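Request:
Um, any thoughts?
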Amino acid sequence: MASDPQPPQRERTGGGATSVLLVRHGESAANVAATAAEVAGAEMIDMPLRDADVPLTDTGTDQALAIRHWLDARPAAEYPDSVWVSPYLRAAETARIALGGRPNGIRRVHDERLRDRELGVLDLLTTRGVQARLPGEAARRERLGRFYYRPPGGESWADVALRLRSFLTELDADSVGPSALVVSHDAVILLLRMVGEGLTESETLHLAQTEPLLNASITTLVREGRGSPWRVRTYNDVSHLVVAGATVTAHTSAEDADVSPD
């Protein structure tokens, strides 16, 4: 069997990233289970695996392949110099498939700062489940708001933003080339935009409510140079899925993104 063509090699230079591709992982088994539970009005999501071990579905695999085709079609100068991946299986699988045709020597890092938001006591509960089983937490979340509410044993969006501020400094390193790829989760990508662009709480929440991130979507942030603010060039783009004939899936609750697992 003939091997897949490799993207052209190019000389890689450091100096910090000026472009970063933010990719949400493909559809996962937990995405499907969570959506089914919400539709059925169940209180619990049927998912025996821990969040870090949830794999892609067949649809998610097809979506990751569509990302690969899109990456391999990019000019050599725009292929990522370095790759940063959430250690959670669904993101790691998406990256592995998407980078199947990557050139040798590309820098690849699994970084725990890119993991999904931890839900603590809300883990595996649907919206109805939180209201029925933890009414005190439902009331506290309503009072504090989505951005600052921290479930017991879990993280607030502000907590995730804090670890992402640390991560973004990595993209300034001399060893990092101009183009980086990040494969992660919807809340992480949203909050990377918030931190990188300096969005306010209300702007971030509005974005989450009006345009939830789709599975395997691509968001592009660019900047003039190290130390310059990031700005969004494309957001939540799934045209590569349409071109490849892959199914477009959301599996994100704009009404209550705190509960639905990514």
